[in-house]
Amino acid sequence: MELTKEEEAALDGKQGETLAMAYRILVAIGKATGADKLIPVEWAHLSGVNYNTIGDAGEQFLSHLSQDAKFKIKTTVNPMGFDSDSVSRFGLDEEFIQKQQSIRKSYEKMGAIPSFSCIPYEIFEMPKGGTQVSFAESNAAIYANSVSSLKTNKESAFSALASALTGKSPHSDLREEENRKPKLTIRMKAEPADELAYGLLGYFAGKVADSSVAISGSKGLDRRSCKSLCAGMGTSGSCGMFTLGEGEGEKVDFDRKELASVRDELNTAESGDIITLGSPQLGLEEISDLASRLKGRSFRKRCMIFCPRAIQGQMRDLGYTKELTRAGGEILYDCCTCLTPLVDKEDVDSVITNSVKGAYYLRTSNGVGVSLKSLKQIVEEETA
């Protein structure tokens, strides 16, 4: 890799050990991925926020790092493990709460915007197309590449953190135009009917595609369909973007048989004890739809609704908060269905959700069964 004199000096430790460490991470990744140089990025979105994902070692590392480190570019962060406003209701271990708050303080001390959201593309203004960013959240990285025309790889927690500290990232993989051209096309033989079906399509695509995939047979995807597609794709593999239309190279069909096969893999229960909505977190459009569907109806089971705090005021002003709570919904901010300690297998055997990503992590990380239903099904079958 060719480095500038400034980058070489930072790598050699002349600007402190923190920057030297960050540049070592970027150079190692760059060499492994065939990058010829480091390039500037304008925005980093970090994972590694939930204590459940990084543990004691991560918490201690961030605490030490935050003593003198400062982020050089706009930096936002993924959800943490709980909503501070309601954490007392859940009986969480006090050590978990303290460790999670320590992680939060470390990121804020380094200059992160306390977004605690996995959908930065819905709560922040997106930069112009072609802008280089560094997104560690998988659904956000795929959405940025595929819908917002930004350029990012599916970054790791460490690579995105290094980008936040340096403002740089290796010029490789999906940052190069040639690698963004799909070499595989998934031909949809039946248009997915709802957000769940698009999530299942994404999960299938993530399994069969490499870095980029073309999807043909669609009449056009709205934002919510894209969001579900991105979340499913980011869960099952390394694919970092999709395009619509016929691509070059191999063709693979996705029909009702394939859809049923993917659903059977993730759907492990006929019903559930509770309902979780929000993986990725629900944005204002989805909240509006849910509130309108619930008019005059109430959940017959506990329903946890995960949202970014950035939309809290709008939800309240538009009357959505009142309607959701009237229907028995619990609105939770700053956290998400995935890897949450708020769903405990000692209290819950199975969960109903419309999220493919949520289904995967509830099963593999929380150890509970999952009943997959579309939002329409959930309202029809689980409310009265």
Tell me what the structure shows.
The chain is an alpha/beta fold. The chain has three domains: 5-176, Aconitase, domain 3 (2-Layer Sandwich); 181-264, no CATH class; 267-382, Aconitase, domain 3. Helices cover 41% and strands 15% of the residues.
SSE diagram, text form:
Layout: H1 5-11, H2 17-32, E1 38-40, E2 43-46, H3 51-65, E3 74-77, H4 94-109, H5 120-123, E4 134-135, H6 138-146, H7 157-166, E5 168-170, E6 184-188, H8 195-208, E7 212-216, H9 223-236, E8 241-244, E9 250-254, H10 256-266, E10 274-277, H11 284-293, E11 302-307, H12 312-317, H13 320-326, E12 329-333, E13 350-353, H14 356-364, E14 369-372, H15 375-382
Parallel strand pairs: 2-3, 2-4, 6-7, 6-9, 7-8, 10-11, 10-13, 11-12, 13-14
Antiparallel strand pairs: 1-5
Helix pairs in contact: 2-7, 3-4, 6-9, 8-9, 8-10, 11-13
